[in-house]
Amino acid sequence: MKATLIFFAALTGLGLSAPLTDADIDAALETRDLRSCIQKCSTGAVAGSFACALGYSLQGLQEQGPKHAQFMHVAGEYVRENIIESQEGVHMVLDYQVVDVNTCDPVPDVYLEMWHCNSTGVYSGIVASGNGDSSDGSNINNTWLRGIQKTDCDGVAQFQSVFPGHYTSRATHIHIMVHANATLLPNMTLGRENYASHVGQAFFDQDLIAQVEKLEPYASNTQELTKNAADGILSEETATDGVDPFMEYTLLTDDIQDGIFAWLAFGINTTGSDSIVPAAYYYEGGGVSNVSVNNLRLGSEGDAYRLRAADTITVSKHVARLHDTEDQVFQLQESADELLSEEIDIYPRDEIDDRPSNLTASLVGRSLDGDGDDDAVDFDDENVPEANLEGEILMPLPWMRFSLLDGYFKGIKAIVKASELVPEHPRNSRKRPPRQSVPKHEDQKPEIYSPYDSATNNITQCYLDISNSTPVPNIYAYRGIPQQMPSPAIGSYDLLGIRSDVCFDRFGRYGPYGFGYRKAHGGSGVGLDTENSGSDAVWAQTGQIDYGNINWSDAQERCFASNRHRFDSAPLGRTAESINRDNKLKRMRASNDDEQRKEKVNPRSELRHRSAVVVRLYTGFQWTELAILNLRAMISELSLNTGGEYAVHLLLQVHNTDLPIWSDDETLGRLLQAHVPVEFHGLVSVWSESEMTLYYPGAFDAPLANPSERSAHGFYRSGHLPLQVFAMDHPQYSNYWNWEVDIRVVGSYYEFFDRMGRWADEQPRRLLWERNARYYIPSYHGSWDNFSRTAHFDTKQYGRPDVFGPVAFPGQKRLRHEKRQASALPANCIEQPEDCGVGEAADLITLNPIFDTVDSGWIFSDDITGYPGASPSEPPRRCAIVTASRLSGRLLKAMHEEVWRHHHTMFSEMFPPTIALHHGFKAVYAPHPVYLDRAWYPVNEIDAVFNSGAAHSTSGIGSPFDQKNEHNFKGSTWYYNSEFAGLLWRRWLGYAQTQPGRRSSSIRGAMTSSARGGFEEESDEGSSGRMCLRSMIVHPIKHEGPGDV
């Protein structure tokens, strides 16, 4: 059995620390001896078979009847690995292996469906007497603890779930169904799949059940616990020769609360196909009960098995869950005989929480189609190389070895001076730091927080209203940090020049913009239901501002007009030309001839350059009050408080390409009225995919690969196109921040944008690409200088040449400025190579490392178009995950020319860094502070996981951006799939959440019986009050309100 454990650990990538515990069938049944029923596999079985590794096989676990009406089955379940959603309980990783009963070979490429009740015995998607929750009609719309996965080349399907609870008359069990000939639909379901090759149930060792039932929330279950020996269906299954329906398992650690790994191998007849009758159907608009099944007053689950397939209502063949379109029609006829759906084009949306680990099944992409949500994308097996599990051991789940951190959730009563802070993480031991008593700082008051330096002191003051009576408010911060607040695991405050000795509560951050007071007073109406002691301080100076009639576009324009004298009208930025000019000026200033210096200095050198902040939106975006507050904060902090140094624009994608938004102002007005709050109308620029085909006409070559199967002019693959067009239409700016609507900033927007920009502009070009490819982990690397030396050393050890200047490749085409012999490098790069780039404006600033895509495992690495002789390694490419970045005008101009002139383009996150690489532009990854939800120890583990690629970088083989490694980012505050970011944000807003770590639909969370945080906990006399966080950028924030999750 030890060898079997090693086999499973290698197959699943789980590093198991606890001894293997076999499911003892004798003890489980208590009354039966099934050892004589165990059948040996044939000696010719493949090594990858669970059953053969265990020494026996399982015949088909079939439930009764040739036609199987599944009382708890709901058609239209999602193909997804993580099925937990909001449910609490002991987390499980479940592996099922499907084996051919005739050959004992694994069965790949079939869809395995599983579902089970929650910890209190309730099934989602069912409203019926008996089992299910008949008291809650909305339960018909719930989808938790249900899902489908496609078996891999070893016949294995993996799920993440929680241990099932129990309900009256049934032992603890999981339902399993296999569809051998199903078709995956574009909406990531099997639609109304009427046939199954296998229907069965899996059971658990009675001792394991007993351990789990002692824990909450299982212990709160008031239904009677039925033991295995008393379960009629289990007895029927085990009465069949060769059937062992018990799952093998091992604890992930010594503590059962840390989770369970369980597996089961079972046989199916691959040629068999029986009809099935679901109890309900999932549709885009919610669940629909199968009337003919549920109108019967079923006394037990067994009664449902004897229903005929003809008893069910019929459903249109298309899909069980269609995606939103304006033309979509659902009509439930009065007779309930027929549910019709119009045949439509399916538009994918973000219905899947987690990326499936099986690459040959499906991919969940980023919010790159302009709708702000993750997208489900199908692709054929041919387009993605199948994982060779015999020669490759999948990466483990390293975060599971580390405990969850609690220091983030301390409040304002626990604030201490930064010099007295003892961070919970990182630390030099696995042991938690000693518990600190809550300091008594009841009189702690927030102070005005101003990150603006002397460069903004001479601005003409700007106002919100046209009468210049309402000045722009300031945000507030607390001096100090809550005791045990963790330090960032990645990135650095000190390096970028961001203050780390203050913290922000929700009222100091958003109160000045309308948070915490009623709409009748001009506020947002949100935050009134949260703990608010002492919050009045943030309105002491300005009062509660009435935002009911603010026109933000007008306020921006008036502010810039008042400060126009401060800015350079030419959009040069700190380019190579301006660097060369200013270096000459510095030499002049070194001269002793003051008069000569005064005559030669260009007065433009004292002027500032402007930047645009382009926030991407789409028709259909749900404007919450918090989203409005966030945009008010952005405009106030970046534009109005700087005298117009930044200008905020909204770039709205119009999905309906038939609307005449450019030819009819009335139509445009109706569009804005429907999709954008009135206060922001003047900030909006609209675009559509059809418009991009006009800006970039002509035939584009077929891409090297197109996993998403989207258009080269669409936002998903070419999100840079509308930004390029925007830059060409707005040449008055030097830089353009490409920003996503689901990003939030704790602290000041200006401080982050300004400090990242200043730091990036001062970075030398030498070894820049090598530093860019690595996460900076201060607790591991030490100083930035040491990190830089380490990057250089690792690069040399790996035998790769340094990248400096433009990178040539076969078939490369020059741009116009290159034909004019204009260099992208400053002139001092020849004279003073060590100082090359210092003081040169960065053409690209990213918020994640810029990695080499070759052999990285990133799914879109070959999505390149228009390059003759393109291959997986040519042309050379770079990428930065998450498109949020700052791009210079000259970089966008080069990208624009590459597309319109040469018909070159690449996937959205790859194109800007790659064009910078090809043409020698300056690209910089800014290591902003990123936090992790767990206490990684020792800290070299962080480097091993997040710099896991070639030469201790994020590039090449083993990259953290390989799809199978991206789960590690779910516990971070910055990555497109992060779960911790949303949880931390909602707790900070004052809303109760499940135990910190990752949201409740995740294996990362700890076992807890109730939510943490919220009004009651923050108001308790023994608590430390409402949360107060250091400055940080968090992403993605898909849900903000208490009812959103």
UniProtKB/TrEMBL annotation:
Residues 65-171 form the Intradiol ring-cleavage dioxygenases domain. Residues 423-453, 996-1024 are annotated as: Disordered. Gene3D superfamilies: Aromatic compound dioxygenase. InterPro entries: DUF3405 (IPR021822), Intradiol_dOase_C (IPR000627), Intradiol_dOase_core (IPR015889). GO terms for molecular function: ferric iron binding; oxidoreductase activity, acting on single donors with incorporation of molecular oxygen, incorporation of two atoms of oxygen. Residues 996-1011 have a biased composition (Polar residues). Keywords: Signal. The keyword Zinc does not apply. Residues 1-23 form the signal peptide. This is Major facilitator superfamily transporter. It comes from Purpureocillium lilacinum.
